[in-house]
Fold this protein.
Amino acid sequence: MSEHAASHPPHTPFTQHGTPAHATTHVHDDHDHAHQFDDAVQQYDATSLGMWAFLATEVLFFGGVFTAYIIYRNEFYEGYNIASHFLNKWVGFANTGVLLCSSFTAAMSVRASHMGNRKGVVNWMFLTAILGSTFVGLKLSLEYTHEWHLGLVPLNNVWNPDLWIPEAQTLMPTLGDVNPVVQNQVRIFFLFYFIMTMIHALHMVIGVVMMLWICFRAKFLNWPVEKTNMTEMFGLYWHFVDIVWIFLFPLLYLIR
Amino acid sequence: MATHASTTTAPSHGTHAGVASHKHVGSVGTYIVVWFVLMILLLATVLAVEIDLEHMLFSGANITLAMLIAFIKMMIVMLWFMHVKEASKLIWVFAAASFLWWGIMLGFTAQDYHTRGYFPGWETPVNESYTPAHLKLTNAAEQRSVGAKGDTPQQAGPDSGTIEK
């Protein structure tokens, strides 16, 4: 910790009346923090704590589905085993790689904003948006479409075991007869699969829209990129969405 | 646009020296190393599935390993990309608390389902495990899993037949 002391002057979070020594240099500057805060340091602390509180609620939001998935997985072992074979793990692998790369580019964008580098913020952020769109595009074109045509979407008029059972027999030659009970288990797996991946994809789409908005403002509206809170909090959100997928990938694609 | 930006940001960056000091400017080298390690771990996750750890170690060894690698990946992303490494203690508490709460949710839910029917006289009112009758296994796979788990279906056997009708 001590090696960071030089670059991180000690400060008390949520200082009410105290004026830290390093705050005096910009205490009369009205442009570096919103008026309800004492200084930019306090604003930064409040903003990042608020973002982490939001992320904690997001962990519990996804955590509820993860919990239900794990409970059902323990009970419906056979059906989940069959269902997971329908997911192409190499597509999942490619998508995970795309997301990890986008986390890297998002971190680079935040770094550029810390350096006041407007061009860097716009370029890295736009690259992140492209990678995020690639993820959603691969998901729709290679996976959801395929599952729709195989009758694996658990909607009443789409779900069709007659279509996917022959495919299951080729994927798992020793499978034998897939009875109606196991068919229902496969259906429950795909219910979880679609709910989990779609709420994740919704987070991705929201993230891409926010990134394009940040790019637009930074490039055309002369938005002050050196005020880094917005970029940095968005980076936290994007890394969180990445982490959710890091867990979804093995849970959905790699159970055998 | 870029030149215009540099002329406006350069002086303001100077006056904001105090602001910039509490923010960590990560080094490009660190980010590249972190990204490279993440890609290696991703490859390890996919390749580890091919190894049949189920028979080498224990049942569920493959998914345990996959989740362990996922956990390591998450810690790397949080520490370096999300800058938890340089964050205040309060951020550490918030980051850890969400997982603690999720652990409570998973732990209590799992122990509820896991222990249903364990204690004579404490069965659920329909004398049936939580699985609806029409979803229960009826083939040889059921006999295997029931034998392995020693769970309720044996004692609920006669009744489940009537529920199915």
Observations:
- The radius of gyration of chain B is 27 Å.
- Chain B has a mean pLDDT of 72.
